[in-house]
From TrEMBL:
It comes from the Bacteria. Residues 150-176 are annotated as: Disordered. InterPro entries: YceD. This is Uncharacterized metal-binding protein YceD, DUF177 family.
């Protein structure tokens, strides 16, 4: 889905650096059908460097996304910091196969960065989301109490107990 507020009309800009700033909230992720975040508050700074033959786009994002902990399902604010450098060149037809190089047709006059921003931010959030209160022991939760109750009381010793069914197969390995 194209988001018009992320269109950068570069054809009317002079050569040099141009700054753009965006505030990203959960409606941005909802437009992509992404519902992993409860809330988002991210500041995105974009610097567009226009030269006579290409565009360089530097994106830096910082803020927080509210996600559920994978262990306790408690919501918490996960800090997000991400950056992306994109080179935009001009050619015969649109080509975005390369991660860092985008080729736009010569007739284009604006660049939509929404997809790049979306991918950059989603990939900046860790796969395993653990509430900071779990790591430092300050989180009080019924789930954690229940997990402690169900934790094995004694550790098994790693004894070498042979299973007679496997002994015959092990002989085949040594009989060569």
């Amino acid at each position: 889905m194209k988001q018009k507020e992320f269109n950068i009309p570069f054809s009317g800009l002079k050569q040099g650096k141009h700054n753009f700033n965006y505030q990203i909230d959960n409606t941005f992720f909802d437009s992509f059908g992404y519902d992993e975040f409860n809330a988002a508050n991210i500041n995105l700074d974009v610097i567009l460097n226009k030269t006579s033959t290409m565009l360089e786009v530097d994106m830096e994002a910082s803020g927080t996304v509210n996600v559920n902990c994978d262990i306790t399902s408690e919501p918490f604010d996960q800090p997000v910091n991400a950056d992306l450098h994109l080179v935009v060149k001009f050619g015969e037809e649109f080509n975005d196969e390369d991660i860092e190089i985008l080729i736009l047709p010569h007739r284009e006059h604006e660049l939509n960065i929404a997809q790049y921003v979306y991918e950059m931010l989603v990939l900046a959030v860790p796969q395993k989301r653990i509430h900071p209160g779990i790591e430092d022991g300050t989180l009080e939760s019924e789930v954690l109490d229940r997990l402690k109750e169900l934790q094995p009381k004694e550790k098994r010793s790693n004894k070498e107990e042979n299973d007679p069914r496997w002994d015959e197969l092990k002989k085949l390995l040594t009989d060569k």
